[in-house]
Design brief:
Structural class: mainly alpha
Largest sheet: 2 strands, antiparallel
Distance between the termini: 91 Å
Shape: elongated
Strand order of the largest sheet: 1-2
CATH class of the domain at 215-323: Mainly Alpha
Radius of gyration: 32 Å
Length: 609
């Protein structure tokens, strides 16, 4: 945006200057040339203007902005340096605003907020047009950084009756179903008003406040309507609405950007209804569209740079690949967003899931192979060669597949996830769903806290945070068992059992992992209580039926617990009790292991040959 002198400034400055009329004409001429895209002529006019009045901060600023547009809005680095120099020389709100815009398009959202905040603090003292720009842009930055509650509080402040808002758009106007862009055409700053209206309605939608999204034929409002359907869990209507957006976007110049958005959102919808293969296909299409934008980031305009979304789409594709049990593809997908969102504990946990799934699939393949690999006759006796143990196989994989998903990497990812969640738990207050704002939050929007540390995901609630922490403890315990770190496995299982609201599935896992770790630590008497089958009867069968894992019923869970109890009894020398316990283990999930343990018991009790 160009910076212009106000009428008062011009009158005071040129009150006794005989060239004032000519200089005003040059200013108007430069503005018209810039608006019509005649940047070379605009620069020549600015040079003429400098001859009359000499150089000043506004002239330098306008020349830098014009040169930026002259090069196709690509050399934002040079513009940023000029704006910084200009902002240091004088308190120019336009220069600071333009700096924030550059940071926004470079996806440096937090830096943009920090740059813009001095202007927000003096919002009432700014000119009407600049105040409108700063207000709408602040609201946009709060939304894009997932500070949804803070955005709602900021909007509340802008719409407060005691505030004389330059935007002049109150709550009643937003809630009106008939409100559309045509009503805003008569205002002085139509583009600001329309941007403000859209962001205000978007803030209400994302905060799940009841509001009618009135479509005006634009792709933005139609897409927001689809998002509202999605939040309301009306996925069929959300998909239909996105098709309408697609029809609008067919005539749009930014077709690649719009197609990327539509394909990604369709993928998210299918992900929610568990159509994982279809979701993956939509995400792949979204990446293909996005590549047209992000293929050469060094040779595109600043505004095109901000539309690149491959990082977020790969995050979604990784989730779909996990559900499709394709861990290697999921692992590769997660590595890309990890570079940008390395402080996201949920992303670290997803990477560990890919590593764990890859390990389990390899172990299942090994289990299908026969135990005896070959037989040799030596002096009338047979010598049997057994397949290597799982630990040996794993160590071999460590050497040959260092770059792929491994349990060592899973342990590191889980350690990072646990460290981050522990830190965020101590720093952030965890509000419950739909919790009302506190008195401090009502007094000042800056006091509002959003648990938005899982970007690019939406803010996290206390319930979802507790669930994530339980999942991290369970996975960490399992990985530690596989790696032979039994003390860590036991500690993680104990932490899992301490959780306030523990699901029945996680409770079973916690007892199994704690018991196995104690067995490996030769603390059999402590392990035995973890395998008492009485607690299983109180578990909820629904928790097992809805989980994507091998134990899919309460009967299967009971059989697993009884088998582990039989193992502990056998290790303690209670062979008869162990055999009696095995007689009730009839589920196919433990059939092979029960047969092996019975053979061992028969030998120990002298019943075998």
């Amino acid at each position: 945006m160009l910076e212009t002198n106000t009428t008062d400034d011009t009158e005071n400055k040129y009150e006794h200057n005989q060239d004032v009329e000519q200089e005003c004409k040059l200013i108007e001429k430069a503005y018209e040339e810039f608006s019509s895209g005649k940047y070379e002529q605009c620069l020549e006019t600015l040079d003429e203007l400098e001859k009359y009045n000499g150089t000043n901060n506004k002239l330098q600023h306008n020349r830098a902005v014009t040169k930026f547009y002259q090069c196709g809005c690509k050399d934002h680095v040079t513009l940023l340096e000029a704006l910084k120099e200009n902002a240091n020389k004088a308190a120019s709100p336009i220069a600071r605003y333009n700096m924030a815009v550059i940071y926004y398009h470079r996806h440096m959202f937090q830096t943009a907020i920090e740059t813009l905040m001095p202007l927000v603090n003096q919002l009432d003292d700014l000119e009407e047009q600049i105040a409108g720009l700063v207000s709408t842009f602040t609201l946009r930055l709060l939304l894009v950084t997932n500070q949804l509650r803070k955005a709602a509080a900021f909007l509340e402040m802008l719409q407060s009756p005691e505030r004389n808002s330059s935007l002049n758009l109150n709550r009643e106007t937003l809630l009106s179903e008939e409100a559309s862009s045509s009503e805003l055409a008569a205002t002085n700053h139509e583009s600001f008003q329309r941007a403000y209206k859209f962001l205000a309605v978007q803030t209400c939608v994302l905060n799940r406040k009841p509001i009618v999204v009135a479509e005006d034929g634009s792709a933005e409002f139609s897409a927001l309507k689809a998002h509202q359907y999605y939040i309301m869990k009306d996925f069929q209507m959300a998909a239909k609405q996105l098709k309408k957006v697609n029809e609008i976007g067919a005539m749009s110049e930014n077709s690649y950007m719009l197609n990327t958005c539509i394909a990604n959102n369709m993928g998210v919808i299918h992900l929610r209804v568990r159509h994982y293969a279809i979701a993956a296909k939509f995400f792949q299409d979204a990446i293909a569209f996005d590549k047209h934008i992000a293929a050469n980031m060094r040779n595109i305009s600043l505004y095109e740079m901000s539309t690149a979304r491959t990082c977020e789409i790969l995050y979604n594709l990784g989730i779909a690949m996990l559900h499709l049990r394709r861990p290697k593809e999921a692992y590769k997908c997660f590595l890309v967003p990890l570079k940008s969102y390395h402080s996201n504990p949920r992303l670290w946990f997803r990477i560990s899931e890919a590593c764990i799934m890859d390990h389990e699939m390899k172990m299942l393949e090994e289990d299908k192979k026969p135990m005896i690999t070959s037989v040799a006759n030596t002096g009338g006796r047979k010598m049997y060669f057994l397949k290597p143990s799982n630990n040996v196989i794993y160590e071999q994989e460590q050497v040959t597949e260092k770059s792929g998903p491994t349990l060592r990497f899973a342990a590191m990812a889980l350690r990072n996830a646990l460290t981050l969640t522990t830190y965020y738990k101590s720093v952030f207050e965890m509000p419950k769903e739909d919790e009302l704002p506190t008195e401090a939050e009502k007094e000042n929007w800056r006091n509002v806290r959003d648990n938005n540390f899982c970007n690019p995901s939406r803010p996290i609630s206390k319930t979802s945070f507790d669930n994530m922490l339980c999942a991290i403890h369970a996975a960490y315990s399992y990985v530690s068992l596989c790696l032979g770190d039994y003390m860590c496995a036991y500690e993680m299982a104990q932490e899992l059992l301490k959780a306030e609201k523990l699901s029945d599935a996680h409770r079973l896992l916690a007892h199994m992992y704690a018991g196995e770790a104690l067995i490996m630590l030769d603390r059999l008497s402590e392990a035995r209580p973890h395998f008492e089958p009485t607690f299983v009867s109180s578990l909820n069968a629904f928790d097992f039926e809805t989980k994507d894992w091998r134990v899919k019923s309460l009967d299967a869970a009971q059989n697993v617990v009884r088998y582990n109890l039989a193992v502990v009894m056998a290790l303690q020398g209670d062979f008869e009790l162990s055999r009696n316990c095995l007689s009730s283990c009839t589920h196919p999930i433990v059939a092979a292991k029960v047969l092996s343990l019975k053979t061992y018991l028969d030998i120990k009790m002298g019943k075998g040959t």
